[in-house]
Amino acid sequence: ADRSIARTRASGLTQGEPAIDSSQLTARQQTMEAVKKKQLEAAEKLFAAGDLRKAKMHVDMAVAMDRSGACPEAQRARAAYRVLAAANSNKGDHYGVLGVAAPPGGRPTKESHDAVKTQHKALCDAFEADKSSAAVAGALKLVKQAFAALTDIRKNEGAVPG
Question: Where is this region: Disordered (predicted)?
Fold first, then answer.
């Protein structure tokens, strides 16, 4: 009896709840995938309408439903909305757009330059995989602009060349 209770708890079922067979699990997974897709579509429509806050909320719901991490579109959209939110809240904060801490004193260092390059590459790799989303395309454009601004030696006197 103790083993069946342990298996029930491990499976996430509560006492008295019927076990789910594999065909039901597949149907449940398909339903969750459809709901995640609808959340992402709603986010895209809200983004097109200019409501970034609500669009991000829908993306966050899609990510929350993706417990297994099997929906890279949701993760990519979340990263895009973080970039877009950073660009909206802190105009001109290129470090914030890339999600990198600004160097102390505002002068670029070798470490900050390396962090900028690493984060730029990671975000571009993630965003370039999804060309269909306007939000992701917008975020990719902002990431490239931030990188260009932070690595332009003429603008950042004393910057460490790459």
Answer: 1-28
The model carries a pTM of 0.72
Distance between CA atoms of 44 and 33, rounded to whole angstroms? 17
The answer to whether the CB of 73 falls within 8 A of the CB of 40 is yes
b/e sequence 68-89, b meaning 16+ C-beta within 10 Å:
eeebebbbbbbbbbbbbbbbee
Is residue 59 a contact partner of residue 74, using CB atoms and an 8 Å limit? yes
* Interhelix angle 22-48/72-89, nearest 10 degrees: 30
Contact call for residues 59 and 40 (beta carbons, < 8 A): yes
Please, where are the H alpha helices in the chain?
2-10, 22-48, 52-65, 72-89, 94-98, 110-128, 134-151
Distance between CA atoms of residues 36 and 16, nearest Å: 29
